[in-house]
């Protein structure tokens, strides 16, 4: 509050401060002003007295001594990782229990295989493995992570999985939270991470996209069961100097009127008590679960082909770049026809398009970091490459970012 009040002191009451000089002043966390000509960084200190841990065996973030936070920093992608389930289901496998064929699926979607969680595997395990890969590539220890963001619509726990992943990774100095934005989730998480670095002074942030849509697929519906698979992908977003900032531009959008075209709605089972003698509502409440994924494929296709080029162009405009400056186009892996149509509209040649859809299907929030990790480890994406990436899906939500790798 002190810092906020300083900025509104009328010039007439403080003649020594001129309006033309306000741009050169910076506000410190303590509420003091400093001349920006003599200070390139804004330091805010986060410190408090040690307190007893609220739960035995856990660490209290308020009790540790943080280094001063540097606000206004840039962000860069320092590492990536991915993980997929062991079980692979091919188009021919699907044809054994639903009326379809490899040709029918591959021609319409570009998908030939997908991975599905089975046995003792769970989404948390995939997310942890993907995050470990990102940390290893970035050469960052788990205890130096400040924040873990899990982008998922299908966590193992209804209340979210980020905190469990933070615990399993050993990120003792981090806090964690979940983002639910379906197939746009990773883009939302990525941009959120950069804002915590720029506005909050965070240094190392894990952004994990992980989904197990196989749990909500009607395996008798050939319109949806052919599309989805399970996976996890992660990136380590790291603070850097402003001149190294890897986020060149971004754009985010949502339109709830399109929710009817792609959803998995909560549904109530019949209650055990079916009558009431006093006119009160039925009790106990109905037990709730979620329906299988329902999708109007034609409408979703039209939405994606129309909206994705526009959001990427908006991000390119913010970055001051033309599509010809893009080294790689990396879209959410939903349908090869969508990927091809967007590349054509943006006039990006096919040799610059990253796609692993054929091997994994639509893995929702995991699809972009999964494809990125394979491209980086395969030697295609190199340090300094410019990547135009976009996510789109249920909500409806869509967004894009222009990022520089490394």
UniProtKB/TrEMBL annotation:
Annotated EC: 2.3.1.180
GO cellular component, one term: chloroplast
Record domain Beta-ketoacyl-[acyl-carrier-protein] synthase III N-terminal: where: 177-256
Stretches assigned to the Beta-ketoacyl-[acyl-carrier-protein] synthase III C-terminal domain: 316-405
GO molecular function: 3-oxoacyl-[acyl-carrier-protein] synthase activity; beta-ketoacyl-acyl-carrier-protein synthase III activity
Gene3D superfamilies attached to this UniProt entry: 3.40.47.10
Keywords: Fatty acid biosynthesis, Fatty acid metabolism, Lipid biosynthesis, Lipid metabolism, Transferase
Residues in the signal sequence: none
TM region positions: none
Reaction it catalyzes: malonyl-[ACP] + acetyl-CoA + H(+) = 3-oxobutanoyl-[ACP] + CO2 + CoA
Listed GO biological process terms: fatty acid biosynthetic process
Coiled coil feature spans: none
Presence of the UniProt keyword Hydrolase in the record: no
Transferase as UniProt keyword: yes
UniProt-listed InterPro entries: ACP_syn_III_C (IPR013747), ACP_syn_III_N (IPR013751), FabH (IPR004655), Thiolase-like (IPR016039)
Pathway where it operates: Lipid metabolism; fatty acid biosynthesis
Similarity comment text for this entry: Belongs to the thiolase-like superfamily. FabH family.
Entry-linked HAMAP family: FabH
PANTHER family registered for this protein in UniProt: 3-OXOACYL-[ACYL-CARRIER-PROTEIN] SYNTHASE, BETA-KETOACYL-[ACYL-CARRIER-PROTEIN] SYNTHASE III, CHLOROPLASTIC
Role according to the record: Catalyzes the condensation reaction of fatty acid synthesis by the addition to an acyl acceptor of two carbons from malonyl-ACP. KAS III catalyzes the first condensation reaction which initiates fatty acid synthesis and may therefore play a role in governing the total rate of fatty acid production. Possesses both acetoacetyl-ACP synthase and acetyl transacylase activities.
Name the UniProt record assigns to this protein: beta-ketoacyl-[acyl-carrier-protein] synthase III
Gene source species: Asparagus officinalis (Garden asparagus)
């Amino acid at each position: 509050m002190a810092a906020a009040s300083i900025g509104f002191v009328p010039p007439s009451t403080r003649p020594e401060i001129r309006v033309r000089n306000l741009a050169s002043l910076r506000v410190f966390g303590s509420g003091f002003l400093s001349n920006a000509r003599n200070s390139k960084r804004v330091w805010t200190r986060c410190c408090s007295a040690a307190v007893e841990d609220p739960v035995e065996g856990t660490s209290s973030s308020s009790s540790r001594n943080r280094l001063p936070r540097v606000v206004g920093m840039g962000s860069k992608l320092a590492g990536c990782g991915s993980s997929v389930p062991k079980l692979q289901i091919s188009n021919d496998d699907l044809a054994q229990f639903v009326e379809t064929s490899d040709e029918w699926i591959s021609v319409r979607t570009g998908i030939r295989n997908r991975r599905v969680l089975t046995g003792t595997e769970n989404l948390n395990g995939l997310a942890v493995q993907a995050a470990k890969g990102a940390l290893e590539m970035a050469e960052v220890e788990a205890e130096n992570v400040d924040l873990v963001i899990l982008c998922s619509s299908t966590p193992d726990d209804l209340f979210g999985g980020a905190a469990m992943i933070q615990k399993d990774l050993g990120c003792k100095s981090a806090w964690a939270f979940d983002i639910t934005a379906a197939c746009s989730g990773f883009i939302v998480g990525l941009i959120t991470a950069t804002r915590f670095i720029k506005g909050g002074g965070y240094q190392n942030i894990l952004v994990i996209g992980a989904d197990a849509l196989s749990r909500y697929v009607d395996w008798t519906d050939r319109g949806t069961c052919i599309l989805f698979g399970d996976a996890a992908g992660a990136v380590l977003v790291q603070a850097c100097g402003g001149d190294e900032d890897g986020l060149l531009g971004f754009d985010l959008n949502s339109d709830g009127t399109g929710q009817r075209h792609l959803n998995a709605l909560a549904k109530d089972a019949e209650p055990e008590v079916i009558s009431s003698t006093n006119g009160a509502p039925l009790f106990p409440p109905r037990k709730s679960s979620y329906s299988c994924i329902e999708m109007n494929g034609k409408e979703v296709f039209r939405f994606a082909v129309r909206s994705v080029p526009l959001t990427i162009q908006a991000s390119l405009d913010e970055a001051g770049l033309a599509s010809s400056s893009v080294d790689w186009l990396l879209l959410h892996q939903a349908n090869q026809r969508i990927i091809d149509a967007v590349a054509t509209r943006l006039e990006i040649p096919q040799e610059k398009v990253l796609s692993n859809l054929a091997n994994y299907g639509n893995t929702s929030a995991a699809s972009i970091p999964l494809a990125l990790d394979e491209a980086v480890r395969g030697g295609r994406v190199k340090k300094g490459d410019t990547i135009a990436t976009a996510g789109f899906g249920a909500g409806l939500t869509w967004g894009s970012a222009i990022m520089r790798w490394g």
